[in-house]
C-alpha cells in the first residue's frame, strides 16, 4: 500500500480543480498550498489531503528517506500512549496540543474505545487545521477543536470551550506529540499558568 493514497474526500472533484462542496471543510483556490497537517496525513496514509500535500510528502520522503515511516511510528506511539492512559491509568480527559488533523487512529477514537464518555480537546494554531478538525468532529460529542498556540498555555487553558469541557479537578492528559520541532520561537513564549 502506498504511503500517499489517491484522492480523498477533500480532494478536488474529478475533472475540476475545485474542492468539494458541502458542510465539510473547503479551501479556497484551485490548488491549495501544501499544509503541514495534511502533509502529515498523507505521510501516515490518510485520506484528508490534497494532491499538493501528497506531492510535498513525496518530496519530503525523497529528501528525508524514512519520513513516512517516522510519521507512522509517531502515530503508533500516540496510539500506545493514549491507550495506556485511558485503559490502564483511567484518564478520561485529554488535551492534544499541536494536534494536526484528528483523522484515523487519533486520540478521541482510542480514548473512547476505553471509555465512550472520554472528553478530548484538540488544539492547533493553524486556523485551516482547526476548521477542518471541527468538520471532522461535527458528530463527536465531548470532542472539540480550538485554535490555540502551545507557546501560550494560559490562553489555551482559559478558553471558555476548554473550561466548559475539561474538569481541571480531575486528571487530564496533556499531549504534545511530534509538534515541538514545528514551534518557531518568533515571539517570546509565556509559560506561567
CATH topology of the domain at 89-182: Rossmann fold
Low-confidence stretches: 1-29
Radius of gyration: 17 Å
The helix tally amounts to: 7
Account of the protein in words:
The structure is a single chain. This protein has 193 residues and is α/β, with parallel strands linked by helices. It has a domain at 89-182: 3-Layer(aba) Sandwich (Rossmann fold), CATH 3.40.50. It is built from seven helices and four strands. The protein has helices at 36-43, 51-63, 67-88, 107-114, 127-136, 153-158, 160-165, and strands at residues 93-97, 119-124, 143-147, 173-175. Helix 1 (36-43) packs across helix 2 (51-63) and helix 3 (67-88) runs parallel beside helix 4 (107-114). The radius of gyration is 17 Å and the shape is globular.
